[in-house]
Amino acid sequence: MNAVHTMRDVLLHEMETGVRSTCLLFEKVKESDWSYRPADNMRSLKELACHLAAIPESDLAIMQEKKQSDIAVIENRYGDFQSADDMTQAMKTGFEQLKTYFVSMSDQALLTKKTTPFYLEEGMTQSRWLAETLTHIFHHRAQLFNYLKQLGYQVSMFDLYI
Length: 162
Fold this sequence. Notes:
Blueprint: H1 3-28, H2 45-63, H3 68-79, H4 84-103, H5 107-112, E1 114-115, E2 124-125, H6 126-150
Antiparallel strand pairs: 1-2
Helix pairs in contact: 1-4, 1-6, 2-3, 2-4, 2-6
């Protein structure tokens, strides 16, 4: 295996850990807690969870230069989810699509191909998109973890690194 594949696979493995642990956190949420909002200027727990579940699919669409209206359709579909199971299944499916996209890419494309999303003037390489999506998932997983802590759930680092 070459160094580019090794690095890609390490990042995808970490992302899979983020997805898997996020889905296990989703399963802990009681129905009565989905409306929890830590502050008026923050997302509710359900809004955060739906956004987090959408990241693999929506970030893939963004890096593939889909139109803003197409991204909105994806995000709205996730916003309609009513259960942790719906979020979990969709997040796992989105991750598999994203993984297939990166694994099928040549080393040259991963390292040098740039795509420009609707909200940026300059594009980013696919390797940078991979890192961006990974950090996006972990950023919001940390928020989810903190929401659960604030609600009194017994969660710990053992729920994150599984």
